[in-house]
Amino acid sequence: AQKITQTQPGMFVQEKEAVTLDCTYDTSDPSYGLFWYKQPSSGEMIFLIYQGSYDQQNATEGRYSLNFQKARKSANLVISASQLGDSAMYFCAMREGRGTSYDKVIFGPGTSLSVIP
Amino acid sequence: DADVTQTPRNRITKTGKRIMLECSQTKGHDRMYWYRQDPGLGLQLIYYSFDVKDINKGEISDGYSVSRQAQAKFSLSLESAIPNQTALYFCATSATSGKVDEQFFGPGTRLTVL
What we know:
The complex is a heterodimer of chains A (117) and B (114).
Chain A: E1 4-5, E2 10-14, E3 19-21, E4 24-25, E5 32-39, E6 46-52, E7 60-61, E8 64-69, E9 74-79, E10 88-96, E11 104-107, E12 111-116
Parallel strand pairs in A: 2-12
Antiparallel strand pairs in A: 1-4, 3-9, 5-6, 5-10, 7-8, 8-9, 10-11, 10-12
Chain B: E1 4-7, E2 10-13, E3 19-25, E4 31-37, E5 43-51, E6 54-57, E7 65-70, E8 73-78, E9 87-94, E10 104-105, E11 109-113
Parallel strand pairs in B: 2-11
Antiparallel strand pairs in B: 1-3, 3-8, 4-5, 4-9, 5-6, 7-8, 9-10, 9-11
């Protein structure tokens, strides 16, 4: 079964507008972490933002915020004031079982974001 | 200097050849991972390791083997490369201690099997 689902293969957004990239996850582990990575065309993986399952507040990092809805098992990434340099692939990922024998990180299939001038 | 390095960065090889991809880290992390990424797709976990004595298979381990020579080094081998192993390979590390679960990625190795 798919652990991380990103239902938007491709998204377009106008420059300076906000955009939401969807991510839903599946785990029975009460302790887990969720994060988003950006992969520009150059290929490197750039860490954007992290949310722990016990964190009470939604995570924010500059123009990035994570809309964490635990009961719905969703962790959507919101990018405010989009810039041309935001055009990239975006991956949602989950780490579960931290410190246990099944401690690992699973990635979603990604969403391609294109920012239009 | 980069915290997670991968060698080689690019490699073209022929079907049936043995290939080793190497990963080194200076972050002092205990966890290390190998992923592959096919064009336009997400990352699939090949193998992961908790320490030099603990190696685990990921989602797509068939056709691959690994070696954790030291805490800082984790190598991925393709014993007999085949064309559908053409992909971008990433090494990553993470820590057991600390608040954040973030993984730190190497720059990737582009492997082409002809």
